[in-house]
Amino acid sequence: MNISSSRTTKYTIAVLTYLQRHNHSTNLQIVKGLRDEFPELSKTTVHRVTARLLEQGKIHSAPATHENAVRFDSNVLPHDHFNCRHCDRLRDILVPRTLVEEVQSQLGKCNIDGPITITGICSRCNG
Ligand SMILES: [Zn+2]
Ligand SMILES: [Zn+2]
After folding, report:
1. Which ligand is nearest to the CA of 61?
2. Distance of alpha carbon 66 from its chain centroid, rounded?
3. Distance from the CA of 127 to the center of ligand 1, in angstroms?
4. Percent of the chain residues past pLDDT 90, beyond the cut
């Protein structure tokens, strides 16, 4: 293994670990979050690492931030989200199948087939 690929491996593990700890993050949040540990880590590198992980199916896309920044998800199983209107935090939820079917019945021939995002105010912002 050459120096460059071992560095990539090190960053890949760091990015994956960060994402698993925070569940949902943008590239910028990852760069900032890893700055103490890896001051030399650039946004370009993080961008490349998350793009590769996404391609490999090791992470998924989450709903974008309110500023429309791409956000990644460490949970690769199918799930829905609760999004705080105030702080933009995401929480994983599972919308019950029966509820989806009720909404589906309002849509006729339009099909619900993707993740659902419910918005509101989170417990932290409510507190
Ligand atoms: Zn909030
Ligand atoms: Zn999620």
Report:
1. 2
2. 13
3. 9
4. 92
